[in-house]
């Protein structure tokens, strides 16, 4: 089954390019620590999911590119074409002449209805190219105007038009300090709308990825390109084909469905995060060796202590003794808090993967009480290695780890809202104080639900 | 991509405008080596086949034939505009986009606003509509004028109302030169205060600039070059004051150097909208992020490094120094000290080979020494444009919505009151039809109300920042 990707705004398009590039390069990576036949099956599965074929044989990404002004899409198209290895469809873009001005209301209430037909038509064409549709992957940022506002609008329309297809939104959380001044307003409006219309929200925070670039990848002058490439690596390790129950040569057919089934048992809890280990510069990779035991131990502690990377993990944080209730309800202010999960999915790729022992992840103390670990935890193991990593492990979790960042955004937005600053820019395009209040209410509810796990 | 139209009004407005067009042409020539008419150039220029008579000559793609500025030149005297039309830029301007008269406004806002306003309203509308028609997607009007005279001040602000009524969806960015204390036009306080009311009510965003600051900046550049220590050498092709690039010539025409700073400001303001980068900032984003309340739309600007404003080859200093300088009072284009006042919002527009980590490092470093209003503690808007200014590796434009504009306005009000108390020169204004004393009193109240807003914000400066109680959700 195939996934149709919708890339929205500058962020969505810049990341989308890196994702397809990473997926393609990985699937054509020679070797892969497995047989040639295995490699071919992997490639074919990856292709089915993400690329369609054109007459001259160059794979075409199953993607629709949307932006309200032209510069970024032109760049994205030419970067892809230049690689010569894959490209975007010539007619898969929708552009306008003037951007959304970082205004969620403009993206949602003006651009959305105005261009709904054209955008939905483009998506329809892409869907028609699929033999069978697993669902939609929508890449967008929360801070700006197009990705956030138009992204929310498009997701809603996808829900209306393709009610049986799944939707996962890849949302980029902006840096805590300043990319966009009204980013907190745009964020709460986006999140509250997506909570209603999307099936799962896969979140990446710029601050976290930036730290990975600085500490793990040792990049001195970090650019957005570097950040996007780390992100693409993490997404690739989740979305590339994995074995189904039958094992070798048989890959899972419904990536989105499988992810949702494992990770989103309840519609009140939709926020997912990704952790990946090991993550390092390719130069260092050649000199490093890992054991599954070591990788999994770090990954588990990253989960428990809410660390986003394998450096600086707090090993003091422990799960509560099993059988006993967690040590009091989570308060957002506590520094070192144990991160309770609803569901976890570990994806292992590489050498001797079948020997990897994930027992520690099945500890009921990690999870909330209303799900048995047998339902809350799953593992997918695949022999075929990911990129140049002999062993790599990804953890997708639905846990409390996003509560603190969410709470911060809501807090800052609330302070600004109390002063009524910038509201005239939103009310000008039909987003009223009521709409803000609705968003605040919904998100406070989400925070409370996660805190009470 | 969108287009912008520049409306230059009065002597000052036209002189600055002329410098702007010169710099814009040179910037695009440096970036666009193949002379293809692309979207970046089209933001400020039309491509015209001059062999075609009449209006049909516009060419939208392909090689550049003849570039015409998207500009409307207005002056009630002929001297300055004529000089432009005889100078090296004469082919850049469309002769049909001019409005001139011969008598001038006599440094009288009322003459500019009321007399010439009503006289030329139709003609102005016609020229504006024409320039709008030539645009695929018009986003912004840039109005350049001075506040202290008669034409720029009076007719320039009359225009704002016309633009607001005729093109309500198009942003109005106004670059206003405020009179310094030693201004030689006696009535400049009257003109400025009357113009301020119009700016309060009809501009989307104002960039106030004063001559004294520009002069100080030029002096600093001269000092840097003359000190010899830095091994300064004259650069043949960088963007600066005069097209021959020789600094000696600059001393003959001091205003040229100062005008070029303002021209650089406009160029850098629009660079992220015209050129590519990893984090773009369009003009509508500037307004969205920097104007928290409609009346508080005055932005203090600073350009660093200063040597990007000079034809000199000073070896680039540390990148971080550029950021520090942007907040120093010596680099602001008006007399203001943002560091010791309250920030409502701040935008950093970087050009050149600067990445997000450089930007973040500097914001973290400078944040503790700056005071932001309680509801906008992280009030930063940033952009990264890959194309540096010509002949240099990087530059930074900082735009601050900061209470440090208050002293300029208060000062203006003081000067106004000194004159008005004595009714000095008032009869020149009152004898104009449509002018009454109430025009003056309303104008000064409008300014006082604005100052009061800034005062209220300043009062919150030393208060501790508390988080407000949040919504309580019943579980």
TrEMBL record, chain A:
Cellular location of this protein?
A: Cell projection, Cilium; Cytoplasm, Cytoskeleton, Microtubule organizing center, Centrosome, Centriole; Nucleus
Q: Record's CDD domains? A: delta_zeta_tubulin-like
Q: Name one Pfam family in it.
A: Tubulin
Q: Which SUPFAM superfamilies match?
A: Tubulin C-terminal domain-like, Tubulin nucleotide-binding domain-like
All residue ranges annotated as the Tubulin/FtsZ GTPase domain in the record? 47-247
Q: What is its main location?
A: other
Under the heading Gene3D superfamilies, the entry gives: Tubulin/FtsZ, GTPase domain
The signal peptide here is none
Ligase recorded as keyword: no
Q: Which UniProt keywords apply?
A: Cell projection, Cilium biogenesis/degradation, Cytoplasm, Cytoskeleton, GTP-binding, Microtubule, Nucleotide-binding, Nucleus
InterPro entries given in the database record? Delta_tubulin, Tub_FtsZ_C, Tubulin, Tubulin/FtsZ_GTPase_sf, Tubulin_CS, Tubulin_FtsZ_GTPase
Q: Which family does it belong to?
A: Belongs to the tubulin family.
Instruction: Tell me the function of this protein.
Output: Acts as a positive regulator of hedgehog signaling and regulates ciliary function.
Fetch the PANTHER family from UniProt: TUBULIN
Q: What is this protein called?
A: Tubulin delta chain
Q: Which organism is it from?
A: Rangifer tarandus platyrhynchus
UniProtKB/TrEMBL annotation, chain B:
Q: Principal place where this protein is found?
A: cytoplasm
Q: What InterPro entries does its record include?
A: Epsilon_tubulin, Tub_FtsZ_C, Tubulin, Tubulin/FtsZ_2-layer-sand-dom, Tubulin/FtsZ_GTPase_sf, Tubulin_C, Tubulin_CS, Tubulin_FtsZ_GTPase
Q: Give UniProt keywords alphabetically.
A: Cytoplasm, Cytoskeleton, GTP-binding, Microtubule, Nucleotide-binding
Q: What PROSITE patterns does UniProt report for this protein, alphabetically?
A: TUBULIN
Do you know which SUPFAM superfamilies this protein is assigned to?
Tubulin C-terminal domain-like, Tubulin nucleotide-binding domain-like
Question: Where in the cell is the protein located?
Answer: Cytoplasm, Cytoskeleton
Which SMART domains has this protein been placed in?
Tubulin, Tubulin_C
Task: Please indicate which superkingdom the organism of origin belongs to.
Answer: Eukaryota
- Residue span(s) of domain Tubulin/FtsZ GTPase: 49-277
Report the CDD domains cross-referenced here.
epsilon_tubulin
Q: Which residues form the Tubulin/FtsZ 2-layer sandwich domain?
A: 279-414
Q: Which family does it belong to?
A: Belongs to the tubulin family.
Protein name, UniProt field = Tubulin epsilon chain
Q: Which organism is it from?
A: Rangifer tarandus platyrhynchus
